[in-house]
Design brief:
Elements (H helix, E strand, L loop, with lengths): L10 E2 L23 H12 L2 E6 L2 E6 L2 H9 L5 E2 L2 H10 L9 H15 L1 H6 L1 H21 L3 E2 H18 L15 H16 L4 H4 L3 H30 L10 H9 L8 H32 L1 H15 L8 H5 L2 H13 L5 E6 L3 E3 L2 E3 L4 E5 L32 H7 L13 H18 E7 L8 E4 L1 E4 L3 E6 L11
Parallel strand pairs: 1-8, 3-9
Antiparallel strand pairs: 2-3, 4-6, 5-13, 6-9, 7-8, 10-13, 11-12
The structure holds protoporphyrin IX containing FE.
Pfam families: p450
Organism: Caenimonas terrae
Keywords: Heme, Iron, Metal-binding, Monooxygenase, Oxidoreductase
Length: about 500
């Protein structure tokens, strides 16, 4: 039965276990924001699949059973929404867009964003994806030739920002070749952590006692907004010069501008710029960090690395990168590696859902205003759902795999890296295309000499909206002479 619509609740929040709580602050002092996901997972191990705590005045219920999680996620937008604090902060930051919007605004925007990121668009966009991936290959080719260490996360973010800007705005911003201080994401890199910090801060200290970083935020926002105004102005000029584009827009920004100019569309100037920023933010870290975790996991698992490299070389057949969606579709093992990386290292390890009205979750009465945090990883690491759950074993994702404890279908019900229900990630086709493009390019053209952290230990997980590996650096060698190699220009 649908847990959120059960007619009768059999317990209340007061019946739930949870960590100790102090007057006024609740459990806030026990939480390390940078590792909040890990703290909440530890509490789940101690208190079970449903527990509660207070964050100052906010009542939080945490659930981790995959069925309950999926039910809550599907019960949007009517019963649950994203947190109102996220919506308010996004409005203040100027990027209220599909991710943070709720109600009618979300309903109006969702079809437009979906259309801009659907598989047909990805197919039409493929030649540009090839161009950006080849540019990235040349960039890594230069690092391999010079023997320099690559800051893995930073480089991957350059790639994902370039791809998102090209697909959603038709802009070639080429941050891959830009100087560090010119790259648009140096602003994003300050804004995302600030947003996350403010979302879970017990008090709005940045308003009354701003530190250096807080004082720098308006400057970063201004720089980003000026770039966004440039994208919008150029797209508006294209619509003026080619009015046919209003009926058949080729990218998201054109579609939104055309809608803005139609009567009663309900799309405002702010919606357009909010979504331009949302695309940059939602498409950057998520995909880049998933790729960083994937590359690290492959490097640690030589058998999987060898098989993935063989597949990449066979499918690419001596070329630098895949040439078509059909070629990408043949990278089955690499896709399985990506799902296995997202099972072990989900970059979105928690999804917050605020109850818009009184609800029932797993038999618990949840009053309106309660924040329900869905933990995405405990089910994926549970031996009930996967054999040897801590092992990186991509084979378990391939149909008919002997090692799989469950079918592919049920694995996908437990592992939900892109969320679920009406708000499931609309960028998932693009993300998988990018992940497979980069992984195949890397494995077919280079040998990974090293992927390491400064202290030689496993990379720490840190949460700043997305969960990323701290300090990964990579060294590459061009693949041996009988293999294809990327020649630096
Ligand atoms: C591996 C890469 C990615 C992962 C793991 C990921 C994960 C997620 C998750 C977990 C959500 C929340 C879903 C929910 O609430 O049920 C989400 C939402 C969203 N994602 Fe992604 N994402 C990725 C890449 C992208 C890309 C490339 C884009 C666009 C360029 C994108 C755009 C969005 C947007 C706009 C939303 C909000 C959807 C809504 O609320 O209706 N994502 N993503």
């Amino acid at each position: 039965m649908d847990a959120t619509t059960q007619p009768v609740a059999n317990r209340t929040i007061a019946d739930l276990p949870g960590p100790p709580s102090l007057p006024i602050v609740g459990s806030a002092l026990q939480m390390d924001r940078n590792r909040m996901h890990a703290g909440l997972e530890q509490w789940a191990a101690r208190y079970g699949e449903a527990y509660t705590f207070k964050l100052v005045s906010l009542r939080v219920v945490v659930v981790s059973n995959p069925e309950v999680v999926a039910t809550v996620l599907r019960d949007r937008p009517d019963t649950f929404r994203r947190s109102s604090r996220l919506e308010q902060l996004s409005r203040e930051f100027g990027f209220l867009g599909l991710f943070s919007a709720s109600g009618e605004t979300w309903r109006r925007q969702r079809p437009m964003v979906l259309a801009g990121l659907d598989p047909t668009h990805i197919k039409a966009f493929f030649p540009t994806l090839i161009e950006v991936t080849e540019r990235f290959a040349r960039h890594w080719g230069r690092a391999a030739a010079a023997g320099t260490a690559i800051d893995l996360q930073a480089d991957l973010m350059r790639y994902t920002v370039d791809v998102t800007a090209a697909l959603a705005f038709g802009e070639d911003i080429n941050t891959i070749d830009a100087q560090q201080d010119q790259a648009i994401q140096q602003h994003l890199n300050h804004i995302l952590p600030a947003l996350f910090k403010r979302m879970f801060a017990p008090f709005p200290v940045w308003k009354y006692f701003p530190n250096k970083e807080d004082r720098a935020i308006p400057g970063h926002l201004q720089a980003l907004q000026s770039a966004v105004r440039g994208f919008i102005a150029r797209a508006a000029r294209q619509l003026d010069e080619q009015p046919a584009l209003r009926e058949r827009p080729v990218n998201l920004i054109q579609a939104m501008l055309a809608a803005r100019d139609r009567d009663n569309s309900g799309i405002s100037e702010g919606d357009v710029s909010g979504n331009v920023l949302t695309m940059l933010l939602a498409g950057e870290d998520t995909t880049a960090n998933t790729l960083a975790w994937l590359i690290w996991l492959l490097q640690r698992n030589p058998d999987a690395l060898r098989r993935a490299s063989e597949e990449a070389k066979a499918v690419l057949g001596g070329r630098t990168c895949a040439r078509s969606i059909d070629e990408l579709a043949r990278l089955d093992y690499i896709e399985a590696c990506a799902y296995e990386a997202m099972r072990l290292k989900p970059v979105a390890p928690l999804i917050g859902c605020e109850a818009r009205k009184d609800a029932v979750v797993a038999g618990i009465e949840v009053p309106a205003g309660t924040l329900v945090i869905c933990l995405m990883r405990p089910g994926a690491l549970d031996a009930k759902n996967f054999e040897a759950p801590l092992q990186f074993d991509p084979q378990r994702w391939l149909e008919g795999a002997g090692a799989a404890a469950h079918s592919l279908g049920s694995s996908k019900r437990v592992v939900m890296p892109f969320g679920a229900g009406p708000r499931i990630c609309p960028g998932r086709y693009l993300a998988l295309a990018e992940i497979k493009m980069v992984a195949a390019m890397l494995l077919a053209n280079f040998e990974i000499a090293e992927v390491s952290t400064p202290d030689g230990e496993e990379p720490q997980e840190r949460l700043a909206l997305t969960m990323y590996p701290v300090g990964l650096s990579m060294r590459l060698r061009a693949a041996s002479s009988d293999d294809p190699a990327v020649t630096p220009p």
